[in-house]
Every structure is written in C-alpha cells, then in structure tokens.
Amino acid sequence: MIKVAQISKSYQRKLVLDNISLEVPKGQIFGLLGPNGAGKTTLIRMLNQMLSPDAGQIYFEDQLLNEKHLQQIGYLPEERGLYKTMEVRAHLLFLAQLRGLSKQEASRHVDHWLVHFEIQDWKNKRIAALSKGMAQKVQFIAALVHQPKLLILDEPLSGFDPLNVELIMNEIKALKEKGTTIILSTHNMKSVDEICDHAALLHQGQLLALDSVIKLRQAHAKGRIFVRFKGNMLSFANALWTDFTLLEQKESTEGVFECILQLRGTSTVNDLMRSLQAQVAVEHLELLLPSMQEIFIDLITQKDKQHD
Amino acid sequence: MLVLGPLVLLLSLFAILKAADQGKQELKVLIADPGQIMGHRLMAQEEKNVHYYFLDDYLEIKEFDKAKAYQEFDVLVELNEKVLNNKKCFVFYRDQFSPDIRIQLKFQVEKRMEELIAAQHSSLTEAAFRQIKQGFIFDFRDIKDPKNEAKEANAWAGFVIGSFILFFVGLYGMTIFRATVREKSNRIVEVLLASIRPEQLMLSKIVGIGMVALLQLLGWALILTLGLLFLQQTVFLDIFDPSNWGQATPQRLNPLSSLVFEQLNLSFLFIHFLLFFIASFLFYGALFAVLGARSGADADGQQFLLPLIFLVAFGIFAGIYAVYYPNTTLSAVLSYLPFSSPVLAFITLAKGASIVDYTTILLSLLVLLACALILLKLAGRWYKQSILKF
User: Fold this and answer.
1) pLDDT for residue B251
2) What ipTM score was computed for the predicted complex, to two decimals?
3) Which of A67, A295, B33, B271 has its CA 20 to 30 A from that of B123?
4) Contact residues, chain B, for A81 at CB < 8 Å
5) Cβ partners under 8 Å of residue B141, min gap 6
C-alpha cells in the first residue's frame, strides 16, 4: 500500500530521518513506534505531503505519492484542533468536502458516523460545548468520514476514557476488516500487541526494527518458558539440572505447579520436554514471547548504550 | 521586538522628518514692495542661507517667471499697499523649499510688519503689540500655478480616499493575521494541511477575507451613494438647474459640497478604489498571513505586527507629504512604492489626472500588482516553512 524508499530529512542541519525504508502492507494495521523525537511525526507529515523529503521517495499503491492521493488518506494528528465556534455537523461537512466529497456524499457520510458514534443529538451544538471525549470522537470521525484507503492515526487513544478506548480500538479493528490500511502511531504498547500486524521502531531518525509483530516478538524472545505440571516440585527441580534456571514457581492448586524457566546455553525446549517427561506430568508448556513494550525498551536502551 | 520596535519607529520618524526637510536649502527672496512699506529693512538677525532683495515696484507674476532679470530669484514675496490692513501676502516660489526656510521667511517678513504697525499705527510698544496682534497670512503658491488651480482641497479629498484603502487593508489584514494565529494555536491547521497545500490555505484565507472586505466596501459605497443622492436632492440643490431656481440654499455655495458633488468624479474614483484595494489587499494580506504563520500565539504575534502597522502609517505620511510637495522627486518615487502608491494615486486622481499622470497611476497599479504577486509567491514559501512550527 505504502512504500517508503530511503527517505531522509533534516531540519537546520539536524538529521531527523536517516535513510528510512519501509513498507506498509495493504489492509493491515501498521504500528509506527518510537520515543518522542524519533521522527514519527515528520514521517507522518511526509505521508500527508505536508513536508517533502530531502532524499528518497514515497509510493502510494505503486505510484509516486502525489496530491491526488490526499483524498484517499485520512489523518488524525496527535495535536488535534477544531473550530470552536462551528457546529459539529457543519464542521464535519466542511472537513469532508475539503477531502473531496460532494455536499450530498458528505452529508450522508457525516450523518452515518454521527449515528454510529451516538452523537447525533450533538450535531447542532457548537464544538466549544462538547466534552473532551466528545470532541475527540468528532475528530476521529473527521479523519475517516471520506472513507480513506489509508488511515493515519497519531495517538488516537490519548484523551479517551477506558470505555471510549475500547470503542475506538473496536472501530480500528472494524475498519481493518473492511480493508482499510491503518498506520497507528502510539505510545500505548498494549494496543500495539493487541491490534497491530506490523510494526516499525524509530529512534533518533533511524529504523531500529521492522517486521510483523509476531516475528518481532519471536526474534526478541529470551528463552523463557512457562510450564504447568502435576507432580512433585523436588523431582521437577532435579530434572532441570544445569541446563535450565527456575525463575518463578507457585502451586496453583494442590499438586499442580506453575513455573517460569530460562533456557541456558544451547539447551532447547525439546531438551526440556525430554528431561521432564519421566519426572512430572506436563499439562501446559509455552515459550514466553516479550511484549512490544519490552522489545521497545530493550532496543532503545541498547541503542543508547551503543551511542554512549 | 523590545528594541526593534522603537528603532523602526525612530528610523521612520527620521525618514519622514528628513523628507519634510527636502527642497532648496539656500535661496534668494525678492520682496516686491511698491509702497516701500518695509523700507528695505528686515529684522536684525538675517539668516545666512536666505538672502532678501527689494523691488520698489509692482511685478507681474509672469514677468517674474519669465524675465531674465528675475531668474536668479527663487521666491517672490508680494506686498501690496494694503498689506498692513488686510495682513495677507502672497509668496510665489519656483521650486518647493523646506519648511524650515518657510518659517524663517515668515518670521522675517512678519516681524518687520509688526514693527511697522506698532510704530505707525499705535502708541503701544512693539512688545505689547505682539501680545494683542493678529497673525499674518502667508499664501504660498507655485509660480507655475499662481491661481492655485492644483486644487489642494481635491488633493486632501484624494488623500482621505487613499487612506481609506490602507485603513481597510489594515483592518482586514488583522483579521487574516488573527485567523492564521488561531488556526495555528488550536492546531486545526494540521488537519487542514492534510487536505490542501499551505499556499492554497494562505491564498484562500486572503481571498476569502478579501471578499468579505469587498462586500462590506460595496455596502458602504451603496449606502454612501444613496445618501449623497438624497442630500443632492434635498439639501445641496443644484442652483444652475432652472427647476431649482427659487429654492437654492446657501449650502450649495459651501466649498465642501461643491467639492463632493461637482469636482470629484465619484464613480471614476470608486472603480480605481476597487482596483487599488484589491492589489493592496493581496500585497498586505500576504504579509499579514506570513506574520500570523510565524507567530506562536495571538499575544506573541502582536509585536510582529508593529513593523507592518508602521508600513501602513508610512503610506499615510507619504500621502501628507505628497499633498504639500506634489512635484518633488521623492513624491515621484513614493507614487510607485507599493506601500504608498494607493494614497498618492488618489491624490492625483482627485485633482484630475492628466494623461501623463494617469499613465503614472496605471503604472503604479501594475507595480503594486506585480509586487503583490511576487510577495504572494514568496509568502507562500515562508508560510509553509512557519505554519507547522509550534
């Protein structure tokens, strides 16, 4: 859907994006991650053609990104604003028409979304009269009212209460189901674990990681294993011998234990299974994968150490 | 801005004062005094740069202008025998001279006259007389236009109309500025820029607000036209129209009403008003938009406005200068300068422009338009660079 090829950008001699290349697959949710100042907003602004790269190209459906594509892109910026004196419906109509919809189309789409988000009773109220959460919903509608093929959401969950976070998360999933490609820039790593298919991690203008979320988690797995078994804890510990380290243990029900182990040296999960087979009855065994939060922190910390 | 503001003001003041001081600094003044009232004498301290000569006879203006014998003189002061009673004298000049020398000349002649009046017609001392005296009127006129047909009143009327352009441009320019700052500070600009280019956003704002300004101007024009027509039909009747004979009122003789109803071609002026307004609005609108884009917040931006307000004020001061000194090189330059050309064009138009003058006005309009287009192009770039810096 989107291909970013060797993009670089500097502001006043400071390199903000350094030779970034990535691809956003069609119909997927792509997490654009990174600490503050990593270059995410700059990249997003380039996708929206607010900024031009100093070097490199961006492709939209295999075409060089151009002005025509703007109507197929929806954008919810992190710092959001609305005209406070305008009425909700009029404001949405204005933004929808700005995105290329005819007056009739805009009217139909706006009314649909107002009903969908249950704010139709507020359509004639001024923006200034809305609560923060309500205004956030209006902004969310404004980003997708023209049914874009690509939806760029910069911190879409910030400012929402837990109920509305759930609502927005479900909406994002539903949009994906309908075929919309979504770029999600967020610091909410739980949401990345939950809904993102792919992710890219930017730090100081450089791309630290890029892959599908599952592959990233597998690649950064630290050899930790969860085991639930029925039997004797002493026999279990003896079976581990020197190839595995017992990190945590607890008895969940009588005679049933749950443990977390760490693989050591060249030992594998198969080695573990063989060792345990004769000693205890294994009910569940699972290779523990790190969360995106852990991967994020690890990679950034490593990079900063290298830099120092 | 704390330092830059007063500095710009100081420089502007210096430029204005310097400009007002323009004109000949040393001149020869011939005083035609057929009654020998002054007795070939002036006050004791004669200024070094003004030299006075006396002629004990009448002198025709044309003779002073053309005759070889008088070419060395720059100024003719005409004192007739009644000058001590009517207290008015005419001063004819070949070229404009500085206000400073005007004051010197008035001082010399007036003080000598007062001396004479006090001595000949009163038992008062000269000092006591000065306390109760009436001022002398000095009527300064161009030797090429001795009857003052250059229509100073018309020039002032043109100045007022031209200043209105700058006033409206300033007023609506502020609206552009505030709208840009508001969009930037509440961050909706980022949503807008995801749909349109910054240059489009800037231009649409200038054009949109310009249309509102034009609409208001047209409203004003309509109301004023109807009002003037009503006044023409009721209060200021045309005394030359036989149907109004017997009803004519003294108001018709009022020089201001005569200026408005007879001397100014209002519809002609209005068309030019629109043209100059559009060009000036594009020119200044681009500057206001850029300043808005560079400002972080409304209060923060006020300081950036000062230089722009000075520029608008400069246009008005330039107009005042051009009313007094219409034929100087500086006035010619100011008539092409985009900041002042609207005011100067209307001063000329209101006086009744010749073909040459009108060509200058059209050229100045073209220069203003060209500058506006260049500035819009540059402003688009500056706007783009600034608008996303929060």
Assistant:
1) 45
2) 0.80
3) B33
4) 183, 186-191
5) B90, B91, B92, B93, B147, B148
